[in-house]
Amino acid sequence: MFLKAPEFWYKKDTKIEKCLQPIAALYNLINSIGIKTGIKNSVLPIIYVNQIVIGDALCIPAMHMLFKILSKNGFVPSLLANGRGGYLTNVLRVDNKMHTYTQVGNDALLLSEYGETWIGKNNSAVTDAIVLSGANVVVTNKLFGKMTTPSIRFLLVNGMHGFGNEQVFPAGPLRERVRDAVNFCDAVIVVGKEYASIKHHIDSKPCFYVEESYTCSDALEDKNIVAFCSTWQPDTFKHVINSLSLNVIDFIQFSENHKYTITEIKKLINGASRSKAELLTTKRDYVKIHNVFKQHVKFIDTEFLPVGNSMDDFVTKKLSMDGWSRG
After folding, report:
1. Dihedral sign for Cα atoms in the order 28, 34, 39, 44
2. Which end of the chain has the least Cβ crowding within 10 Å, N or C?
3. If one looks up domain 46-212+305-321 in CATH, what number appears?
4. What average pLDDT score do residues 224-231 get?
5. What pLDDT, on the 0 to 100 scale, is given for residue 3?
6. Are 118 and 91 within 8 A, CB to CB?
7. What's the chain's average pLDDT?
8. 94 near 71, Cβ under 8 Å?
9. The pTM is what?
10. Domain segments of the chain: what residues?
């Protein structure tokens, strides 16, 4: 497994890309069987957010943003996490004061800070539970497959990375082909500045732009920083740190979705202490740290802010056209 996204994923027509294309074709076939078909038979509307570039942490802030849009416009939304990374599979309402990321996954734990959040392997049972809770719309990054076609399907694109070399893993950074993802979605959400290399792919769909807002858990100006994260896209976190003008003296990279051991966290804390520096990570990594050590670690939270009101109008109009009420 790569520690970070390999450089050839962001270069066109390299030799290694071409060598890996047969494996990529097999991966795409296995990954796509049956997941793009379905009938609309859900008991409540579902808004699905999808990112196809491996390592882009876009779903959680996007789901939070859509939750706020729906709440502002009179709906009663719930968040449904895919539950990856946790060992609990039964239908469950997540409580961030009681559950841990090893139980429910770090995405579910993060989302539960923003609003009512659920996990559950059985799609029918979890949607029934959400209805009983009083919600009338679901925002999720969990694709229901053959069970249902979501009411609104958003494709998330990071303007900084675009689609890389536009090849499917392992020949490139994509979970599926760009044209398949664009054809399947109802609209595209571009995060940050849109690069020209992605524009021709998404022109056929409504496109909405969002800006990123970063919040630090503590004031860190004029302090030395030891930063760490676990993602295939460490450059994204470095970009955030640079935008906040923080003085980073060391940057430590772990593999995607790394589970931190107590020994590793102690080593990070001691190293930062020796350098008279603050330890800083992403909020997605912060929730994976044992509570005993959290007082020694600062984090940066990311929020997506829609540009204008066009996304509000699109969401409310689409749900109304499909016959879903606000409450």
Report:
1. negative
2. N
3. 3.40.50.300
4. 96
5. 67
6. yes
7. 90
8. no
9. 0.93
10. 46-212+305-321, 214-303
